TrEMBL record:
Gene Ontology MF, one: endonuclease activity
UniProt region (Disordered), positions on chain: 18-41
UniProt cross-references to InterPro entries, sorted A to Z: MSSS (IPR046893), Smr_dom (IPR002625), Smr_dom_sf (IPR036063)
Pfam family membership, one: Smr
Native organism taxonomy: Bacteria, Bacillati, Candidatus Sysuimicrobiota, Candidatus Sysuimicrobiia, Candidatus Sysuimicrobiales
Alphabetical keyword list: Endonuclease, Hydrolase, Nuclease
Residues annotated as domain Smr: 114-189
Protein name, UniProt field: Endonuclease MutS2
Naturally occurring in which organism (per UniProt): Candidatus Segetimicrobium genomatis
Length: 191
């Protein structure tokens, strides 16, 4: 397996462990922290990810979808603001200031679009694999693959690969405003 696949597998296992911890947290009768979700989160604030029962630090303000980039342990996750509660100052004093996870810089710099125009099918599939691993780790829900129109060979190779990829929930050709048949819109599985 390639290094990026190993990294993705480790991340999936960690997310599964977090989900089990969340179930155990809820089963022990821990109530959700009181109060509404915070409206004005800023970078560096300490929060509780309610669904995971996990503390984290905000690394990016809410995006246009109302999701915030939060570091929870070694992972950087995109979490809806509605799933967060600001931790009171007293609860954050005992928390060590974690360093950003290794992939966080890459996650913040990763584009929601991959352009494979001009590549041979084999090269495009290799780039697509790396990109899907990175996009999944970065917490993207949807990405766009630009393959161009041309003869359609690259589009067909991309579609065939996406149909077998474990991180892909669904895909479709772009609408005219999204690039038409020269682009494929990919919905990624949520962990």
């Amino acid at each position: 397996a390639r290094p990026s696949q190993d990294t993705a597998q480790r991340a999936r296992l960690h997310l599964r462990d977090l989900a089990h911890a969340s179930d155990a947290y809820a089963a022990q009768g821990h109530p959700a922290p009181p109060g509404p979700p915070p409206e004005d989160l800023r970078t560096g604030e300490h929060v509780l990810v309610v669904s995971l029962g996990q503390r984290g630090i905000v690394h990016a303000a809410p995006d246009s979808h109302g999701e915030v980039l939060v570091q929870a342990g070694p992972l950087a996750l995109r979490v809806p603001v509605s799933d967060l509660r600001r931790l009171p100052p007293g609860e954050t004093d005992s928390l060590p200031e974690p360093s950003p996870p290794a992939g966080l810089g890459k996650a913040l710099a990763l584009s929601a679009t991959l352009d494979v125009r001009g590549l041979r099918a084999e090269e495009a599939i290799e780039e697509l694999d790396k990109y899907l691993d990175d996009a999944t780790l970065a917490g993207f829900n949807r990405v766009t693959v630009i393959h161009g129109k041309g003869t359609g060979a690259l589009r067909q190779a991309v579609a065939a690969h996406l149909s077998r990829h474990p991180e892909v929930a669904a895909f479709r050709l772009g609408a005219e405003s999204e690039g038409g048949s020269g682009a494929t819109i990919v919905d990624l599985r949520r962990p």
